[in-house]
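Assemble and predict.
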Amino acid sequence: MLRNTIPTRDSNLEPLTDPGQVTGFSSPAQDYHEDRLHIIQKLVKDPTNTYYFEMENNDMSGFGIVKGALLIVDKSVEPKHGAIVIANVEGEWITRKLFAADHQKYLTCGIQDRDVPITTDGIVIFGAVTWSCNPMVNGSMIKYLLP
Amino acid sequence: MVGLVDCNNFYASCERLFKPELKGKPIIVLSNNDGCVIARSNEAKDLGISMGAVFYMIQEEIKNHKINVFSSNYTLYGDMSARVMTNLARFSTDVEVYSIDECFIGLTGISDLGNYAHKIRNSIIRNTGIPVSVGIAPTKTLAKLANKMCKRTGGVCVLDTEEKITAAVQDYDVEDLWGIGRAYSKQLILMGIETAADLRNLPLGFVQDKLTIQGVRLWSELWGRSCIPLSDVQDRKKGLCTSRAFSKLTDNMEELSEATASYANRLSYKLRKDESCATVISVRLLTNRFKTDQPQACPAITIPLSHAVNNTSDIVKTALAGLRAIYRKGFMYQKVEVTATGLIPETEVQLNMFSHWNGPVNDKLSKVMDQINGHYGRGTIRVATEGTSQKWAMKRNFLSPAYTTQWKDIIKTK
């Protein structure tokens, strides 16, 4: 979708509907107003077709995806050669890089011995990972300074 | 031209999307309280598992054929349905979501319908993973019929010429037509009308004479004259009901009160979402009518409200008063039903000058409850009378995770 997703306002965190609205002198910034950036506009282009997964180990650290990473999958994006994909191999969910060589598609984590050729029926590709968000800090360690 | 898009074995397909290893394996989905079968994958249909089969009576088949069993996960199905419908609405401005897994779509002015139908189908399958069939025809009734034929034609069926329509109605059983109930189809078969073609070939005079207005509409629709337009606005609901069977039969007043309070709370929430207020609240208790050896009762009460309300406090209080009035000892109850009727828009509430009115305070309280529950998840804050143990709560032993609506339930990958 071309249009940006507009995040909903949390009235507790943002008590003012329009902080730019003034009663006295009209704000000189009013004519220059643009909506503030929000991460969702970059990470989720099509919320209707977006699904989320979580990385459970460090198998994909070679591709910059570490344990605990949030993986964003947009099913409307075609999983092509070179894409990081979510796949299900006989009941097990894995994240791998999809690549093609000699008319054969493979799933790899960077270690050749562990490459999985996509031949059998038991392999289903769920979709392409469009973004991965690595955790930099344990969630419980973050303290927001709110009133 | 109008299309009908139908999700194939929708509930089973939703479960399979997040368990792809079940591809080609039989799946059944159970009703609330794990009572009976309400959805089957093709493999389960082929095994002869019938719709509505009672779960505890088919244990043997389940074991022998390794059938995968799921409790109904309406949270998941609701979200997947919304995804399918949203994708579909990108193809036409004219859509009517007909049920959780079916949608009519206006296709006037599209030139290459076959191509467009494939485009719709492929796009939905790619974006949602849910397989769909697309039937296209001049009227809704024929679109429904075209959709049923998709099984044979590979997911898409376009009835755009007179020849194709004539061929399609030829062997189509009259009871499979849209809007024909069992009683009506029996009546038609008695008159010698067995296929859609039989019905269509009747002279107009006969149809007008012998059939109901519904029959005349059906007849015209079969001839490609649209009588049932796409409707995009849903009529304001006339009544709302919350009821669910308990996981076990009970005569315990405490448990019944908890369940009643909980359903009344849910009902008031539905009213607020609908921006309606109730003027009448009904409460009904039901025993299990299939347990013929037990005494049966179904006491009910209808309580007119002095003020039209939709706040939790007033509705729970009224429902509980109703329950106390109808409760009789000596019966094992299976179900309690709380219904709101005489709904009026929230903005048109008239006050009553002869009775006390605590609306503004209660409304505010309900609004805060909705906000908290919206933010922290359903059930975070409840009415105390709902109880904490909820022994009567729904049995869902085979429930799959809320993969798409709860962060704690998203799939972990390796």
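The CA atoms of residues 13 and 147 of chain A lie 10 Å apart.
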